[in-house]
Amino acid sequence: MAKGRQGNVSQLTVCKLWAKAGGRCEYEGCNKLLYKDDLTSEDINRSLVAHIVAASPNGPRGSEADSGRLVDNIDNVMLLCHEHHRLIDHEGLNDHPAERLRAMKKKHEDRIRMLTEIDVEKKCLPVMYAANIGMVTPRITRSELSNAVVPDNYPDERTIEISYKNSSTYDNESLFWQMEVKQLKDKVYQDVLPRFKDGKYDCISLFALAPQPLLVKLGTLLNDVYKVKVYQKHREPDTWTWQVDNEQNHFCIETPTDKTKTPVLVFAISADAITSRVKQKYGETASIWVISANKVGNDMLRSKDQLAEFRTIVRKTLDEINSATAESSIKVYMAMPAACAVELGRVWMPKADKSLVLYDKNNSFGEDDVETITINHCCPVKVPDDYYKV
Description:
Number of helices: 9
Structural class: alpha/beta
CATH architecture of the largest domain: 3-Layer(aba) Sandwich
CATH topology of the largest domain: Rossmann fold
Strand content: 15-25%
Distance between the termini: 62 Å
Order of helices and strands: EEHEEHHEHEEHEHEEEHEHEHEE
Largest sheet: 6 strands, mixed
Helix content: 25-40%
Number of domains: 3
Oligomer: single chain
């Protein structure tokens, strides 16, 4: 028998509790591993079995009607660390009614059950990429991506980061684009694809925040030859987990009347000011296609279904431009979610599509958009067989 705060809990109930809790503290926000020492990693048992309704009517949350009846009930005990056991029974007793503790227990155990039900074949290879946007370096954490991939997948214990760490160059310098493109190619070819191609993973789970031309380039390297799940950072709520598009915000396309001039493709999804700026720049000298959304905004991309719709409309638009003009390249201007920029690169077909000349808006150069990267047919999008040979 194991000792609760008062009264005995059977060994069977304790074993069930450890399994349901996953060996972790069930207090909300804690999740502390209870069978290893934080400093030495030695195996220890630092858990306490806590009653929600005390075993004695005079104990914390005790009840004449329920205390004796629930003393060995699995639904009435929680696995806690010492700190939170002390909190719920002493220092914060008044803030921890039985209803709150039951809700904590259920939420924690539901999560453990969900995670352990994921098929063993659904392990994914997490890949993170961040590059300076203006003077800001985005930050992506392991915990964020771990939360985002479940329940469809579970992350490998190693996360591959393909960022150019501690870069001292910024997107108003030509050297920035050269260095970042080289870094992307080297990291994808050397670190990402060899691991993915060994067959241990269901997919690559990609989390990326960078200037949009670089995201497009990344998409061409992780093209649709490979199974890649692209995630989007949301602002409200602050998460990478896909949401539900309750507003049914769809994409739409504006097609030029005359399709024979210099082809220009505008993505006005996060902001619509880019459309008037580009039209003013080219006037009547270009054929301008505009892909936008019913409701434009920097947090409009909410669901995986929207991203799939985006891929479809981009593919349709590229096919239309290919048929309409003999020009060898398309000038591309972008104001769209990061995941959309990646998918533009993944949808682009090196043998069938025209080169993409990617522009970026940078206030350091005034009001004009600056040419940055060209995606062309000479850029390898599949790893050469001898790339890894020394």
